Amino acid sequence: MRAVRIAQPGPVDTLDLTLQDVPEPQPGPGQIRLRIRACAVCHTDLHLAEGELANAHYPITPGHQVVGTVEALGEGVPGWSPGERAGVAWMHSVCGECSACRRGESNLCVRARFTGLHVDGGFAERILCEASFAYRLPPHLPDLQAAPLLCAGIIGLRSLRKADLAPGERLGLIGFGASAHLALQVARAWGCEVHVFTRSADHRRHALELGAAWAGGIERPQGGALDRAVLFAPAGDLVPQALRLLRPGGTLAINAIHMSAIPAFPYEILYGERTLRSVANATYQDGVDLLELASTLGLQVTATGYPLSEAGRALSDVKHSRLDGAAVLIP
Ligand SMILES: [Zn+2]
Ligand SMILES: [Zn+2]
Fold first, then answer.
1. What is the pTM of this model?
2. Of the ligands numbered here, which is closest to the C-alpha atom of 63?
3. Is the CA virtual torsion 273, 156, 79, 296 positive or negative?
């Protein structure tokens, strides 16, 4: 089969991401093999390709938002049959025994293994996954629209939860890509007023089309303090600016696996019982919840398809924010 292999990380605009022939993987006990139909591109894939993730090892096939058809089953796999559609997300497996797993925070498992980081991911024609971590997808959603739900959607929902967002509150979204465009719709369904901060004129237009109350630059916020905010851009410079948007008691959640250094800031912008926290990974249940919301709320997924052979162009477009919503590779 063919797959994108990153042997040596580097800037995606110059990295060689031509497809390579690799052996077809064989499912072990408890695993299933999918024939991949679509795999969305995440900022994490970009950080992996550019060598910004400390625990990455190479060569590796990136990609952790995979829609495929069950093709082969390992021993002891109940509940799945060949021909069914399934989804694979970032979480490949957890230990189930560590203190994080025992207290229900399996996203923080010390022995967690992640798709497209520790095991080969979905920038390929086939993938193996643990059957117990595979998802059933809303039947009405085409592959192109279902794939971005599997990280952008899931982590967007977890970010809203970690931002303590309550119905009817005023929410700020800083950066507006694949994850934010889905989080916006969930927040709107909860009756929240959403303010979007982005430099891109195209992204401002997209946000307003999806129901944002306001879209503009972070240097000129409009109308009063926000209750909650989520920072999607991996730019530490924005953290103090985002904190300044919050009311006392407000929360800023950072949705980024990697971020440039956060500059020193005066204590007064955190004082007033404001909360600053990061968001790391997501539990399997977060994914179940998001996929159910996608059905009940009728989330609109904006996605652009690219042939798998053009993974480099897709990563470059994500890096430079040259598209609305999500980039999705189609083998
Ligand atoms: Zn991701
Ligand atoms: Zn664990």
1. 0.95
2. 1
3. positive
Residue 261, token pair as written in the block: 């250094």
Tell me the CA–centroid distance for residue 296 and ligand 1, in Å. 23
Ligand nearest the Cα of residue 281 is 1
- Cα(283) to centroid(ligand 2), Å: 11
- Residue 156's identity, in one-letter code, is G
| 14-42: pLDDT as tens digits | 999 999 999 999 999 999 999 999 999 99
CA distance 228 to 275: 9
Q: Which ligand is located closest to the Cα atom of residue 152?
A: 1
**What is the band of 305 on the pLDDT scale with cuts at 50, 70, 90?**
very high
How far does residue 93's CA lie from ligand 2's centre (Å)?
Answer: 9
Kindly identify the ligand whose nearest atom is closest to the C-alpha of 149.
1
Q: What angle do CA 33, 38, 42 make, to 5 degrees?
A: 105
Peptide bond into 82 cis (omega under 30): no
